[in-house]
Design a protein that fits this description.
The chain has 200 residues and is an alpha+beta fold. 24% of the residues lie in helices and 26% in strands.
């Protein structure tokens, strides 16, 4: 079981390298779900894509489907956000109980484009950002990992990719973890897993 109490140290360097070390072990259950400590919550204080201060408490009463990524991600993020979008569509009316959330791990570059990016995938998706410190704290609360990697020999400080955790997290109406879906979980399994926890 993933114990999200086991969290690492945040190291933010002057050359914009962010490294979050998370130490845990997890096991995969049915439908690509990862066993997780359901007694834990994941508090955060960020800003939404309209520039409004937003915290985890603003989503009480709804399930949260959360993914960490960045808008210039070449493959992993678009694939997972598309899966979330298709899952939301498949859920139909019951999907109104679920709030899809995208938290950028690249707040330096994801500014003006965040709203356009997330609503491209789903009109109800909320994009969240903040200062690098706030974003790192949010990632730490979820047990998420990310690290910037320079592209080739470029000296441009804006030229980098980000290696990151690709889990999709589901939290309940009380803000506590319900499950996490491993990277590559099919849309059908994502829908089935969400419905399983909505019925609890």
């Amino acid at each position: 079981m993933i114990d999200l109490r086991k969290r690492g140290k945040i190291n933010i360097s002057l050359i914009f390298v962010v490294f979050l070390v998370i130490s845990y072990s997890g096991t995969t259950g049915s439908q690509g779900q990862i066993e997780i400590d359901t007694t834990m919550s994941a508090p955060f204080s960020l800003v939404d894509h309209d520039g409004q201060p937003t915290s985890d408490e603003d989503f009480r009463g709804r399930f949260m489907l959360v993914f960490f990524g960045y808008t210039s991600c070449p493959d992993v993020c678009p694939i997972h956000l598309q899966s979330i979008s298709r899952a939301m569509e498949s859920l139909g009316k019951v999907g109104e109980k679920v709030q899809p959330i995208f938290i950028t791990i690249d707040p330096e570059r994801d500014t003006e484009n965040l709203k356009e990016y997330v609503t491209h995938f789903h009109p109800n998706m909320v994009g969240l950002s903040g200062t690098p410190k706030q974003v790192a704290a949010a990632a730490q609360a979820y047990g998420a990992y990310f690290v910037k990697v320079r592209e080739g020999s470029s000296k441009d400080p804006q030229s980098y990719l980000i290696n990151h955790t690709a889990y999709i997290y589901l939290l309940g109406t009380d803000g506590r973890f319900r499950t996490a879906f491993e990277s590559g979980t099919s849309v059908d399994n994502l829908v089935a897993g969400i419905l399983q926890h909505l019925d609890e």
